[in-house]
Amino acid sequence: MKNYKIAVIPGDGIGIEVMNEGIKVLNTLSKLNKDIAFNFDWYDWGCEYYLKHGKMMDEDGLEKLKKYDAILLGAVGFPGVPDHISLRDLLLKIRQGFNQYINLRPIKLLTAQDCPLKNKKVEDIDMVFVRENTEGEYAGVGGFQREGTKDEVALQTSVFTRKTTEKVMEYAFQLAKSRKKLNKVTSVTKSNALNYSMVFWDRIFKEKSNVYTDIKTESFHVDATSMYMLQRPESFDVVVASNLFGDILTDLGATLQGGLGFAAGANINPEREYPSMFEPVHGSAPEIAGKGLANPIAMIWTAKMMLDFLGHEDLGERIMKSIVEALNNREKLTPDLGGSGTTNEVGDRICKIIENIG
Ligand code: NAI
Ligand code: MG
Fold it and tell me: Which range of residues forms the domain containing residue 207?
């Protein structure tokens, strides 16, 4: 019997709504499977907490989170708290503090009709982004000078370390090997303009491709990558990108899948020195929050990624099958997918299907 301790941070807006559905699915699985149990501890950190306490999370928040097997996060950010505070003081603090240097984001089409591109089959859209997650453009290095004056200067410096860049690329090559799809890694660069950071990035990529000679490689500038993702998505397998480029391109990728309501993600510390954190790609969507309109599939898929990471791929597979089956009844889906179902109803249906497929 495996009893997992999971820290739950629903966060803000639709983060709270979709989290309920993710937990519902995990509880359904543990009810059906006596070998696995979850102990959830909820943390009400986020923007509301900030407005009450002047901070996004407890000062000893990381210390508190250390003892868990994994962290599940909904989304953070809400009008009234500047986005750079909500993001940096909670999300990035955990990603960086727990050295979750891999951000894994699968882009996989589940039903052809959800793809906005014409004539695409489900197998045409099946790639995984390996995004560097602790440094790069989001390192938080910079400052203002002569703030508020007409001579003001703002600086934001990217940080690329050899250690992390090498590990991220290695992870991507290993993943390409294990996926056995196209045996290919695509590197996203912009070394024509970013003549230090991205020249360095390209150099490390070349070094690693010389080691993994059985894996094909290609390297495109980020602007061209965004074009190819639309023109020929079937040519991508594993894509390795810096923090900023990966962030931008995975929203584009989410659109290929049918929208942010499908986009799952994992912040991974591969060495398992710290807990990894599982969170969907989307934000707190304040304009639809509290109305039961949010699509919970991204969060449920994210829970599947947590199960995979904990070594329960069989249960993860069951979740995926149930999501795919739920997609057959379009009317019962949330409005982003053209249905009239609520967040809660979609979660309930997926749980029912999980129970039925046993
Ligand atoms: P967003 O992802 O919240 O929303 C973008 C668009 O997608 C909106 O039209 C929204 O309604 C829709 N959408 C997103 N998730 C959906 C779902 N599950 N079902 C149906 N529709 C969905 O991004 P936006 O608007 O840029 O940011 C809103 C807030 O979220 C900001 O405060 C931002 O800082 C924060 N944010 C937080 C993230 C996180 O916690 N990881 C990631 C991205 C944004
Ligand atoms: Mg993003």
Answer: 112-261
